[in-house]
Amino acid sequence: MEYWQIQQVKARFSEVIKRARQSGPQEITSRGKPVAVILSKEAYDQLTGNDESLVDFIRRSPLSGLDELDFERDRSLTREEMLF
User: Whole-structure pTM over 0.90, yes or no?
Assistant: First the structure.
């Protein structure tokens, strides 16, 4: 991981982003203490699980492929009607 001071990041932001994509996370420090990390979008998606599509998520479901599922709509009112 490379380390950058905030002042350096302000002056060389494009380079920091480029290095995050090519070399991995870039740590930002303020007064010698770590305060933030810049990640590539790909690394962020891996960490958060956003790299999986909704279709893939549904296919992984234990209910996938079951034909006997019945999703009947509940037609009851969600609250009582108030008459004035």
Answer: no
